[in-house]
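Hi P.,

Sorry for the delay on this. The queue was packed all week, but I finally got your sequence through. Input first:
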Amino acid sequence: MAPADDADLPDSLRALYREDATILAIRRVHELVDFGAAPAAEPVRVPPALVQFFYDGIVHVYNARALPQRDSVFALLPAYQVHARPDPYPYWFTVTVLRSEPWAQAWEAGLPASGNAAADSLVALFGLDVSVSSQSAATTVFRLTTEEPLNLRPIMWAFRAFTGVQSVTGPAFIGSGRSDVTAAVEAPGVGYRFRLGWGDCPAGCVHHRTWSFLVGYAGGVAAGGSVGGREPVPAAFYGP
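Then the structure:
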């Protein structure tokens, strides 16, 4: 993807679109894993070049001011901004462990070394913070948090194999989310789809509208149309 000029973006938008690009990069990593392959083969640290690839594509669409459809996505009122749904979530996951396990007891006590060498190695290697989320008589739920966005799936896969682990989960997302950005890598370029939902979104949103763009690898942008309902904002933001 040709580099995009983001000089016109406010710093706040640069950060949001880079976060969107990070989610798209993690999804792409997952797509590239052969069906049925263990996620342990995936990189945990998100490849910076892949993040930049998707970020440049989003910025190319942002800069395509000649396309009326562009305004429908990027000139919406702040309350209706379209961004990637954080799924997979890159900042934390939980591990439920039997409290009878010595390494779980060490983590409960806040000890830096749990005695589970493999778990300790992952925590140290990726800078994970371990905290107690909840407890029952039999189990403790630990939250493992990272400040750096990571592809957590390989780490979660590894934790499932540890003695005493009952479950390993990420945040639960209900419904399809208010908004999302997807990217399909194709021969002529990257197909971006920006989806906005409204109306009872915790249950999946009653209405949706999706705007599509094809970003060529040289940076050119073509509008691919839009489908769905009309978002309840001023008519100037409806777009084509």
